[in-house]
Amino acid sequence: MKNQALNCDSPVFNQSMMSADSALDFLLKAALAPSKTEAVDLDDALGRILSEDINSSINVPGFDNSAMDGYTIALGNEHLNKTNLRFSIVDRIPAGSTGNELSEGCAARIFTGAPIPKGANTVIMQEECQLSEDGSQITIDRAINLNENIRPTGNDIVEGGVILQRGRQLQPQDISLAASVGVGGLRVFSKIKVGVFFTGDELVEPGKPLTPGKIYNSNRYALVALLKQVGCEVINLGNIEDKFASTCNALSELCGKCDLIMTTGGVSVGEEDHVKGAVESLGELNLWKIRMKPGKPLAFGKVGNTAFIGLPGNPVSSFVTFAIFALPFIKKMQGNSKHQSNAIQVQTNFDCKRAKPRREYARARLDYSTGSAQANLFPKQGSDVMSSIVWADGIIEIPENTTFEAGELLNYYPLSELTR
Predict the structure, then answer these.
(1) Contact 297, 130 (CB under 8 A)
(2) Rounded to whole angstroms, how far apart are CA atoms 114 and 117?
(3) 327 CB contacts (<8 Å, ≥6 apart)?
C-alpha cells in the first residue's frame, strides 16, 4: 500500500495552540484507507482486519434439532391441552444420526443436537418424563405444547446473511463463527508497515553502562512494542547517528518501504534536532502545539508521499500522544471500522480547584472498594514519570478550563482501549 500526498495546508496548522479534538479530527481525515488485501488461513486470522463482508452459504443449524436430552414426540390434535399422556418409544436418535419417521402418538429417545425426525413436533426434557419399567413407554404429567425445545433451521444463521462485516478486527469468536459456516480462509487488509528510527547522542541502549549525561532509550522499545501490539509490521532502523545527513538517509530509506514513519523527539528547533529539518527537506512538516498535558508538541507531515508522525521525547508524553492521536490514525489506515477509542464515565476520587488551560490526560487507577468505580490519580503526573503508566489501568480526561469536586463524572479510557 502506497500513500498518496497528504494535504497539510489546512489553517488548523497555523494556530499557535490547537485543541486535542481538532488535532485528532485532522489526523483522522488525513489517514488514508488501505488498498492492499491478502487471503489468510483461519489459524492466521487473529487480530487482522476483514477487507470484505462474510456471508454464510448455509443455515445454522442446517436442520431442526433438539435443544436438550429427552424425548421427541409426534403429537396429534387429540394430545393438546391434556395431561398424563403416555407415548410408546419406537426409536433412539443420538447426535450425528438421523431417526426414522414417527407416527402420531409415538416418541423417540433423542439427544442434544440430534435432528428432529419427520413427524415429530416437540421435545420434552428427560427430567419431565416417567419411563416405564420395561423402558418401552414414557408418561408426561403436564400438558405439552408444540415445538417445545426445538431449535429450528437457521435459528442462529440464515443462509446468505452477513455474519462478519468489513472493517472488523477478528477475535477468536469471529474466527469460530466463520469456521461454523464452512469458511476456510478470510480476506484481510495487508498489514501496514511503520518505519521507526531514533536519534540523540544522549541515548544509551539498555544493558550498557550509563555515563554522565546519558539516559537509556526507553522510547524505542515502547514505540516498537505498541506498534507490534496493534498489528503493524515494524521496520526498525534503531539508533542512527545524530547528524542531518544520517537522518535524511534514514527517512529516504523508510519512505520507499513504509506506509508511515514515526519518531520520538528530535523535532524541536534546537541546533541538535535534525529530524525537523530532514523531514522538511524531503517533504513537509507541521509542528503542532496542542492544548494538552502531557504532550503538547506533535509533528505531522509527510516524507515524499509517506505519512510522518513525530511524537514528543518525554516517555509519558510519547506514550500518551501515541494512544490519543497515533493509534486512531493507524487503525484507520489499517481499515479498522472501530478506529476511535471508547471512553466510559467514572467518578473522580479527587477534585480540581483550579481551572487549567490545557486538557489533561492523567494516569489513574479504578477503585471499586465503595461499590461503583472511582478513579484515583497517581501522585506524580510528570511527563518523565513512566512508572505512572505501569501503575495505572487507564487514563482519565480532565477537561480544560474546568473546576469540579470529587465525585464528578469524567471520561476514562482503559489502557486496553488505548494500546490495542
Answers:
(1) no
(2) 9
(3) 226, 230, 341, 418, 419
Q: Which residue has the cell 431442526?
A: 64
The helix (H) or strand (E) run that includes residue 177 is helix 172-180
Q: Do residues 196 and 261 lie in contact, with contact meaning Cβ atoms separated by under 8 Å?
A: yes
Q: 344-418 in CATH: which number?
A: 2.40.340.10
Look up residue 403 and give its three cell numbers. Answer: 473546576
Q: What is the pLDDT of residues 230-276, one digit of tens each?
A: 999 999 999 998 889 999 999 999 998 999 999 998 776 555 578 88
pTM, rounded to two decimals: 0.87
CATH architecture of 42-60+156-189: Alpha-Beta Complex (3.90)
Task: Please give the pLDDT value at position 269.
Answer: 58
10, pLDDT greater than 70: no
Give how far the C-alpha of residue 308 lies from the chain's centroid of Cα atoms, to the nearest Å: 23
Which pLDDT does position 266 carry in this prediction? 75
Residue count (the chain)? 420
Give the Cβ contact number of residue 405 at 10 Å: 10
Angle between helices 20-30 and 327-334 (to 10 degrees): 20
Q: What DSSP assignment string belongs to 321-335?
A: HIIIIIHHHHHHHHT
Beta carbons of 364 and 375 less than 8 angstroms apart: yes
Decide if 70 contacts 107 (C-beta within 8 A).
no
CATH code of the domain occupying 65-151: 2.170.190.11
Query: What is the amino acid identity at position 393?
Result: D
The yes-or-no verdict on residue 5 having pLDDT over 60 is no
Is residue 367 helix, strand or coil? strand
Measure the CA–CA gap between 266 and 276, rounded to whole angstroms: 7
pLDDT at position 268, please?
63
Quickly state the pLDDT bin for 6 (edges 50, 70, 90). very low
